[in-house]
Amino acid sequence: MNEQAAYLTDTINRIFAGAGSLLPELVLVFFFLLLVTLDLFRSQAIKKLLPWIALTGFFATLLIQILGGYTSEGVQFLNLLRSDGLARYAGILFSAAGIFTVFLSLHNKPLENLRQGRGEYYALILMLVLGLNLMAKSVNLLMVFVAIELVSIASYILTLIIKEDKRAVEAGLKYILYGTLAAGVMLYGMSFFYGLTGSLDYTLSSFWQSLLAADTLMVTVAAVLVFAGFFFKISAAPFHFWVPDVYRGAPMPIVALFSTGPKIAGIIVILRFVAAFEDPALATSFLDVQLFIGIAALLTLAVGNFTALWQQTPRKLLAYSSVSHAGFLLAAILAFGTGYTSSILFYLTVLLFMNFGIFLFLQIAEDKLDVRTLSDFAGLGWLYPGLGVVAILYLLSLTGLPPLAGFTAKLFIFSKIWEAYSVSSQPILLVLLIAGVLVTGIALFYYIRIPYFLFFKRNQTEEKKVISLSNTLLLGMFALPLLVLFFKPDLLLQFIQNILAQTL
Amino acid sequence: MNDFILSSLIFSPLLAALVVLLLPLRLQKLIKTITLLGTLGQMVLAIWLYIQFNGAAASNGQQGYQFVEKLNWIGFSLGTLGRFQIDYFLGVDGISVSMVLLTGIIGVIGVISSWTIKKNIKGYFLLYLLLLTSVMGCFLALDFFLFYLFFEFMLLPMYFLIGIWGGPKREYAAIKFFIYTLVGSLFILIVMIGLYTSVIDPLATATQLGLLEKGIPQPDAIRQVQQLLQQNMISSADLVRTFSIPAMMEPANFIPGSLLHVLSGVVLWSLPIRFIAFLLLFAGFAIKVPVVPVHTWLPDAHVEAPTPISVLLAAILLKVGGYGLIRIVYPVFPDAAAYFAVLVGGLGVLSIIYGALCALAMNDLKKLIAYSSVSHMGFVLLGLASLTVEGVNGAVYMMFSHGIISAMLFLVVGVIYDRAHDRMILNFRGLAKRMPAYTTFVVIAFFASLGLPGFSGFIAELLVLVGGFSAPEMSGLLPRWLTVVAVFGLLLAAAYYLWALQRMFFGKYWIFPELREKAVLTDLNAREYLMLVPLAILALLFGIFPHLLLNKIGTTITGFTQTVLQSGQEQLHMVLSTWVQ
Fold first, then answer.
1. Lowest mean pLDDT among B170-184, B190-204, B227-241
2. Which residues are in the NADH:quinone oxidoreductase/Mrp antiporter transmembrane domain (chain B) (predicted)?
């Protein structure tokens, strides 16, 4: 009896000791509960307030995580969640993504007309971001699973928040079916790992030592199964089939969020998972797993870029573009031993701005200018020169051309892969490098189609609509970092480095 | 003034572009005037720089660049992996100074030629100025990253200039141009990344190690760092990686064990990796030159582009390719340059002959001239491959001279197209009767291009051929028969120009019946004289007084040739020694 009491006290003490490190998550939970409670009131005044409450929550977490100081290195929450610099930087990105999503939602026409569930909508965004934060902090397989499921469930509902839209419902259904399948497969793989090692904490060296002793085939199979779940979240091939449907059906702010938030979180999870491979001795023992990731990266690059070539609607084009970016990130993850974390975080940051920018552009085009297919863009660049030029900036950054941050991000990643190749001479790295550079050429071919219609084709209408000031400001806000981060990338890199070292 | 002249050269068009951006659409005259002022400013600066440039100053390796501007741009510590450094690093030597002068002159001619553009004036001149900025940047940058930035940025204005203001098939031509050049620049990107991970900046590393604080003078500190580096005595945390092109030229700056080090011994697809890097870089720039067989974008782009853009494309954009070969590919990979000399020279000769044969077969005057460009740029390759002082001088002379003459050629095509909206050779006959002044300039341009003595083209071709013929003795890189074949190119050039002249301009006046209604065949107007006369004078001036150019470029090129040849043989020996093992 006493023993149990002691254990209980101990656990409670540990919970209290570690709870401080979860401050951003607790703030998110608080605002979620606040939002849900306030949503019960019928008053229109309160309903109008809801997005701003969500916004306050995101700004609060953003501020907390930029300022830091709520946690110190080494504090873990019950061996489940680790609040290190990596998680903190990811948290900043998630909060920013949350803020951007709310901004986009405030300008979204279908969401404006939404009768029911506006409160839930914003509450679910908070919940999703909470899940993303947990994903980035997890160091335990089971915790990873729970966090991913939290994100997934919020995602399913957000996809079909506009229930009248048939395509949204179809997308939501497909998403749920694929999602549960991926989750099941991942859980199956995790149980393999648990059986092989007796531990769920994959950052422990004993975890990897036991895997070394286990049957190689079993380990590879387990890794493949677990990675299936991760790949689903970052929309990498061959688990990308939900992407075009969801991107076509979901509301635009949610699409923008999906293309960044879960992708960032998934990459961080994989980053933590393969962190053990930084040790070259260990890395050589898991060549199969690396080869598997490499082939998946190649496949993702190929599928994303080649399929994008044939798309006729901007939403689907950007869906496959999102797949292709997952490919670049996966390729970068293989550059072990080169200190690549800051380069990947740089890429993810740039991705955040590019994607929200282009989806905001698309939202304006859809809501205001009735654009459904690529050819509907015809001549709009001459009617709205500012909008057209900003779109070119986003698209060229997505392609990876100078003078935009997308180029710098790709340059960093490619140089890491080259360095890793010159250290380890793994042929897969060379293949990835060449493939990555060459698909950039293909990428130009489809990205340029939007400016092509914007500027090269005659417009069908002369009627000019007004683009609101707030939209213009937002467009500028997403575009400016792309230029700044090209000309002074060291500013952000230094910031990332400081946060990773928890010196800020 | 001297301190910032290179930056002013790059940014004077950009400044004009900013002013144009702020002007309202309807002030069309003002937009044109501002553009003209911006380019005139650039031209004056270019001429001033050319006069101030000391052609006799020695030039080798890190030294020898004049008017250098070097600022830290991006610097970042990678912890245990050292630092990386990107500099805003500009400078001119004899090779770039000639290209700067050319860009300055052609920039102004292009604006005058654009005076009649009607559609979307503001957008057009904005893109035009951006294009000039990036071309000038390419010729002045000494940091590979900076060079690449300008090199890539050229594509975008060009894409829109062809795609929006071009002829009937403009969209196809624009995308073809874009994709071809982008693929080329991606090849360059791969090698740039490889070089960056392999090369250190010895001076910055010396600073990092604190050598300079100890009072060791700079040259000694650099030598000391290079020695320590080659003995693997510097910890990787102290290495400062760099994109500086002069640093890449010295094999002593390569980190031992990096893939592109001469002794790395890495073999890829059964070639040493340095050779692969050379081939990739060469391919990237060859697309821009363009070299047969990757030239197919050029005729399309030229035919569809509006006249001023064709002028710019032929006169200065193609030169960026040749310039890249001379500035980067040859000095950084002299070993591979020696190894692949016959390949490079052979492709040059192939371009000369194939381009000339295609030109002979063309019915469209503009296409004929486009192919003649391919043929003439082949001489640049041949001269460079010979690695003799005459040959390389000839290559640079050819780039300059072709810049002047091809601008003239495209302008005269523009004249007939403006009047008749057609430029098929067979649709016209006896134009000399109706347009005597125009015909005079056509004759001047054609004869200058086919290498008549007295024009700059003759000097260029002569130098290249002399270089080619002396190559077996001087550098031992090219067989003599290659140059013999190239001579036939001159013959073919005479054939296609004279034949076109005879068909279109001489004989009894006649034009294709369907064209008669629209065509108003008046002779040259004042604006056209303003463009053609200075170019004709320049072609003559540099044909009669070649030392005007050779005095400026000579010393640099002698140094370049000796360095490339000598270190090429040494490094080739080292690469081959590891390859055989």
1. B227-241
2. 141-198, 274-473
Contact status, residue A83 vs residue A49, Cβ threshold 8 Å: no
CA distance B340 to B346: 10
Domain ranges of chain B: 310-469+487-509+522-557
Rounded distance, CA A341 to CA A407, Å? Answer: 18
Asked if B109 and B128 count as a contact pair (C-beta separation under 8 A), the reply is no
Kind of pairing, strands B240-242 and B83-92? parallel
Q: What is the pLDDT of residues B471-496, one digit of tens each?
A: 888 887 888 888 899 999 899 999 99
Residue of A309, A422, A464 to mutate for B, most B C-beta atoms under 10 A: A422
Please state, in angstroms and as integers, the Cα–Cα distance from residue B343 to each residue in A98, B265, B347, B382, B575, following that order: 57, 23, 6, 10, 18
The domain limits of chain A are 19-276, 286-504
DSSP B455: S
Q: Look up residue A167 and give its two tokens.
A: 């395509």
Mean pLDDT comparison of A201-215, B405-419, B514-528, highest-scoring range:
B405-419
Nearest neighbour of B76 by CB, restricted to A411, A433, A493: A493
* Spatial distance between the Cα atoms of A271 and A139, rounded to a whole number of angstroms: 11
Q: Which of residues 449-488 of A touch B (CB under 8 A)?
A: 452, 455-456, 487-488
**Pairing assessment for the beta strands B510-511 and B428-429 based on DSSP bridges:** antiparallel
What tens digit of pLDDT does each residue of A471-501 get?
Answer: 889 999 999 999 999 988 888 988 888 888 8
Q: Name beta bridge partners: B20.
A: none
Pairwise CB contact (< 8 Å): A452 & B171: yes
Shortest CA distance from A389: residue in chain B:
B123
CA dist., res. B313 & res. B298, Å (int)? 9
Pick from A339, A401, A422: which is nearest to B81 by CB? A339
The size of chain A, in residues, is: 504
Q: Are strands B66-77 and B83-92 parallel, antiparallel or unpaired?
A: antiparallel
* Strand bridging mode B267-268 / B271-272: antiparallel
Contacts of B186 in chain A (CB under 8 A): 437-438, 440-441
Do residue A489 and residue B76 have CB atoms under 8 angstroms apart? Answer: yes
> Is A444's CB within 8 Å of B179's CB?
yes
Q: Which two tokens stand for residue B258?
A: 């990096």
ipTM score of the complex?
0.86
Q: Is A42 helix (H, G, I), strand (E, B) or coil?
A: coil
> Measured between CB atoms, does A427 come within 8 Å of chain B?
no
Q: Are A56 and A50 in contact (CB under 8 A)?
A: no
* A357 neighbors A486 (Cβ within 8 angstroms): no
Q: Which range is most confident: B152-156, B224-228, B265-269? A: B152-156
Indicate the burial class of B86 (C-beta count within 10 angstroms; 0-12, 13-18, 19 or more): buried
pLDDT tops 90 at residue B103: yes
Instruction: Examine the pLDDT at B129 and tell me if it is beyond 60.
Output: yes
B273: part of which helix (H) or strand (E)? helix B273-288
Nearest chain A residue to B147, by CA: A402
Closest CA to A457 of A396, A377, A400: A377
* Residues of chain B contacting A430 with CB distance shorter than 8 Å: 268
Facing residues of B268 across strands? B271
Task: Give CA–CA dist B528/B121, Å, rounded.
Answer: 20
Nearest to A131 by CA among A158, A146, A145, A150: A150
Instruction: Tell whether omega for the bond before B534 is within 30 degrees of 0, i.e. cis.
Output: no
CB A406 within 8 A of CB A400: yes
Question: Which whole number is the average pLDDT over A208-226?
Answer: 86
Q: How far is A57 from chain B (nearest CA, A)?
A: 34
| Of B136, B163, B164, B162, residue with least CA distance to B150 | B136
